[in-house]
Fold each of these.
Amino acid sequence: MTVRNRWSWLGRVAALLILAAVHPIGAHHSFAMYDHERTLNLRGTVTRFQWTNPHAYLELDVPNRSGGGVTHYSLECTSINMMQRAGWRSSDIKAGDRVKAVAAPLLNGQPAGLLLEVTLPDGRKLEPGVPAATTFKRTPDTEN
Amino acid sequence: MPATNTGPNGARGAVRRALVSLTVALACAAAAAGQGRAQQAGSAPAPDITGSWERYGFGGGRGGGDPQAAALRPPPAPQPPLKPMYLKEWQARVQAAREADAKGQPLATGYTHCLPDGMPSMMAAMFPLEILQSRGQVTIIEEAFTQVRRIHLDRPQKALADVEPGFFGYSVGRWQGDTLVVDTIGIKEDVRYQNTPHSSQMRITERIRLVSPQVLWDEITIEDPVTLEKPWTVTYAYRRTPDYSLLEYVCEDNREYADDKGVQQIRIGPAK
């Protein structure tokens, strides 16, 4: 393990501990309606980035894998105050942007999810700072 | 009016007026300079707690990097010492919320309806706080839902019947040495702290003090002759965040809503 890798690993452990610690009071709203056991890896075109409190929303058209057409997903973020503290700006995403989103799906099967991470057209990755984000098991992305 | 006029409205009068204005301006400036600190009757000025703060010490969270953190972490919060019939109701509510979460069907809360915490929940400060000390008043703002409470200094508390119940109640406070002691009454019965039932007679006493130059504690004691067997004390700790300026927060479009069973849902779309 190189020195750099070791630090990166330590950083991840530290981040996990911090997120686990803030969990009890990290959110005003329950995220229990989202599946903690799998994530969606979505590539699509942004139709709207709703920059509002209490939560922001990323609206995404995702081409269907078969049969043509698109499925529209509404992806819930956290408070825009939390997002601003994590470095986000309302101008980071706009309609027409092609992005990759990692989201925990709604348990009731509707096409919606909790955004955990988004990769912007310029390759920049942003996280909305979902409390205890590490408790959502990530499904490997098979489309790399 | 001729410039040589030496009457009260003439040049000499103008000089006198200018001197008076200057004196008033200097006095105002001095008063303004002192306004950052609340006036304390008699002796030393009140401690300076003006500025922004973040909740601190909840199990090593954001304050975890501070070497002094462990020593300045407040004692853990006990369960509410409710009288048996209220305890039963509270336990049932907590259990129902836990079971709903486990089923992935969380129960809607006040937040689902864009409602603020109210007192004393806002002092749990999920989002940053700002404290402002001005003459005769300490104002506490919580960023989330732009919650504001006003603590009127050195004034008698009102009679309960004279306070219209609300989210933040009516607060009076006084500095006792280094501690701001605040008395709050008049919290609406449906404004609940940690789901705990309370009556219109609930009284909140806070002891707010700096435990180090950078760490502020708020020891909150709740008394309620109807629902509580004995006073219930919970302490929150905050650390100074001098570089942070509170952001605006308007609950503008909550797409989470309560369905007819009281379960939280979200509105899907619109696409554009």
Amino acid sequence: MGDVTDARELASRAATRVARESYGKLVAFLAAPGRDVPGAEDALSEAFAAALENWPARGVPENPEGWLVVAARRRMLDAARRRHGAATVSGALAMIGEELAAAADSTAPIPDRRLALMFACAHPAIDEAIRAPLMLQTILGLDAAAIASAFLVSPAAMGQRLARAKAKIKLAAVPFRIPEADELAERLGAVLEAIYAAFAHGWAEAFADDPRGRNLAEEAIWLGRVVVALAPEEPEALGLLALMLYADSRRAARRDSSGRYVPLSEQDPALWSEAAIVEAEAALRIAGAKSRPGRFQLEAAIQSAHASRRRSGVTDWPAIATLYDALFALTGSPVVAVNRAVAVANAHGAAAGLRLLESAGAAAQLDGYQSYWAAKADLQARIGDAGAADSYRRAIGLESDQASRAFLLGRLSAL
Amino acid sequence: MQYLLMIHSDEAAMQQARKEDVQGMMAAYGAYTQAMKEAGVYLGGERLHPSSNATVVRMQNGKTSVLNGPYAEVKEQLGGYYVIEAADLDAAIGWAARCPGAQFGAIEVRPIWAM
């Protein structure tokens, strides 16, 4: 009895581990020949179910990935026969059969096409808003409901959008390919943007009471590591990984013991994760050595400057303001404009920062942007401007996070 | 994979174009079509008369309705098309980008439903 339980436990643990580590690799490998992501996902989930039935009795196979590929391939061929009739399996499918058979028979590792799949997910022909969800689903196997909650849309709508994007990949033949050097940087940018979007959604959610949010940020870091491992020469991939790790290093410090929001400037650096910071610094250093700066490297450099407060005890605001100047020149983003104004305020005085913030607000119509009002309120309060109360109210009205709202209400009543 | 490249362009601007520009455009299209043929990509293609020559036909409640003009009154109208054979969407986009019409209008790339 104990042996049976042990075997089942062992098999289930092995299947879970392969699912975690190999899911995206197997989807990418199975889907690539026919660009058939839904077909690969369905076949793979059936193969995992078969593994849970089969492995406890017969033992975990020596090459679990190969076993799963054989099982999934059989199901894909069956599905194709059902669609096309028993006799005719089209040329493309015959090709899938041969390629997968070769891979499954050999003990050689399954080729890793995850990066190619990520490039398909972030292809310019795919709607920008669905790229991050698509990667989370195809590479990590997250279900539509989990993704939907992080992206604040209904599970049904998310499922529909994911299905539409996968249909386009297949029907329009969006290639699973790592682009040539001349367009690699631009196309990789879209992949990195999507990963960062996943991270940002996970991060925002991390403080809502949903434990899934925390997961999404972690999963995005994992995707970042995959890209770095598969494209080690790309400094922006390293920059993104460093940026996410710096943010992650401060997770424990962002809330006090009673769950209240703590802004970066008031955080206790002793609560920051040393391990995450060390890894981030290393990634950023390797990126910097390649002398090809970019948006994510600059953002990571800003976080690195913040992180050095744990050694020096002070924040080098003039250096941060200079980095924000460069970042704003590169991106022109309104989010960056707000952060830049805050950095200038800390480096050169609240009045100077407020002037910069107001001109950014006028230029980019930031009226509906919560961070603009929160920053403006803070700077107005610092110089004793009577408009601070109004700005706090605007910021509070636009805030969706409970703890941040409480923080702003506290500031307002302290005026 | 087969794709339809639909060339949408501003008809008014085309009609006002200078004669030498039109000739240049025709020469560019000739060279483009030739390049497609030599690459083994070209399956077909035609230029269309302006949309003022279009007629829209519907069958509604058993009655035929015939309307003068194009299906949709938009600034950029379908002015011509190519049918091409390409390995994947990137290859099709590559050919769409080379189309002389891409400089003045928009090329819509649509995969053809294989029967």
